[in-house]
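Note to self: keep these together.
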Amino acid sequence: MRTVHIEARPDHLLRLARLKDPLGAVAEMIWNALDAEACNIVVDVEVNELGGVEYVSVDDDGHGMPHASCGDYFGRLGGSWKSTAKVSPKLRRGLHGRSGQGRLQAFALGEQIRWVTTALNAVGRRERTTISGTIDSPADFTVSEPETVDDGVPTGTKVEASAPAGFAGRLTESGTRDQLTSVFAPFLTAAPDVTITYMGQALDPSTVWVHTAEYQVACPNGKVEGPPGPVLRIIEWPQDVGRALALCDSHGVVLAELPAGIQAPGYHFTAYLMWDGFSDRRDTLEIAEMDDDLAGLVNAARDALKKHFRERDRERRARLIQEWKNEDVYPYRREPSEPAEAVERQLFDEVATTVARRLPKAVQNRRTTLRLLREIVAHDPSGLYPVLDELFRLPQSEQDDLRRLLQRTSLSDIIRATTEVSARLDFIAALKQMVFDPKTSRTVKERSELHKILERETWVFGDAYALMVSDRSLDTVLQRHLQALGRHPVPEQVSPVLREDGRKGIVDLLLGRAVRGSSGREHLVVELKAPTVKVGQAEVGQIKSYAEAVVSDHQFADTGVKWDFWVISTAMDNVVRRDATAPNRPPGCIAEWEGGVRIWARTWGEIIDDCEERLYFYRERLNHDPATDHAVDYLRRVHHYAPKALT
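Structure:
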């Protein structure tokens, strides 16, 4: 018997042992057995009456370790024979180990370790050797003298660990077998003659995985190095086994692991990138992403992963939605007929299927919850997140998934936009009824009805305008004008603004906008007339008097501000129409004064035509042609009003 000593400090050796990772130690022992060309590997874990681990063994039928080589195997740190060999000697398997440190990991299984190995010696005789080590002296291993055994004794190695540390309890946890299965899945799939048994049950990926798929991946930089080319095998598991992108040879031997590097909420998976080209680069695989050739291959594999899970997600959502339809709990009864409905449905489907696991079990409650979600998506998509959080009390991971979903290019923004366009089309239909329909227009009151509605629909006068003043005096117009310019005079310093005849003017609407690309502003004063009032000289005189009051009052003076004054009704008399169609001015403009002041007479027909022209593209894409009942519903819902003739 002799003792072999590793030249290294014990604390360094114990760091290499990774004592807190007993599952990794079992995996390393199994890989060592596979490198030794074992076809049957049995892992036993003995548990005492209190559930604590007493003993761990890993038994294989590989070629074992000849006594003459044990000194080399256990006496050196690094420099393993596997570092120069690509494949095992007889079966030509790809080799997992290469660093010569695997035996140290056995200390994660117990404080006392023993290897009992049977192998053929140089003259073809079978001999048994026992190697022992303790955690108290991790640099020293005792190697027994060889014992000759009968030819009928099979070769192989049994690793025995006793006096396990507390971390060894992880070996009996419910998910341990699945984790080991995920590690060896590609190898076991490629080598059906190999059996790995863990605590009495064989590891069989096909009985555990939820789904599996394979994809060809382009060789680095398009190089062709002979078949087989890189293959990405994706295996999905029923529970979390730890995501990874494992770099393997073509036989499924794991040579290195990288982070999966993708988001796939709700899926547990391992990805195996299998390619014999990795065998030549084993020493640098841990930093593969820094290698120009390998980085391209890894990125291509991750792109394939993303595409795979996008498709899997689409399939899962479609399956869930069909189940809801079969249960009659899905809140949509027909296919979307307009793009706006399709966008709304898309957001609903993504949100509902994301929280599907949190939906009530009872059919009626599930139906009610899904209808509630539909209403929120349709009318207040921005409020979805707090409602879902309140309803389902989502764990942090699902909260993060949902937040990413709701922030994505934002489907909710698209819904808001399409809803707004549809609402504008409904309002234009309502406005037509109010100002053109003979029965309706006679009953519409200018100040209490038309005015109150339009002060909330100022977009009809131009999308860039914002309401500054509604139904206020010229004094208020001046104050808002000065505020828009950043001036804040003391009220006592501001003189009253009067029309030429000394009266105070009451402006229906003052709108304003900043001129894009400059520091200037444009102000629009709108004088509304009831649909039954024709724009004549009196109405033109009124709007001109407002313009004169502004032009003549030095308090309004500012070269950066342009003023437009509109008087609007359904029709205008012949004289006003001649002025509005004069060839030397824009259509509708009846006067232009110095200082950037223009006065306009406009009809509702012209304004509605302008609005419909702006909305034409969206109306065609949305296929939205509102009927009278849509228009009336909009007025009732938004403005709490409907003309008597339409009720």
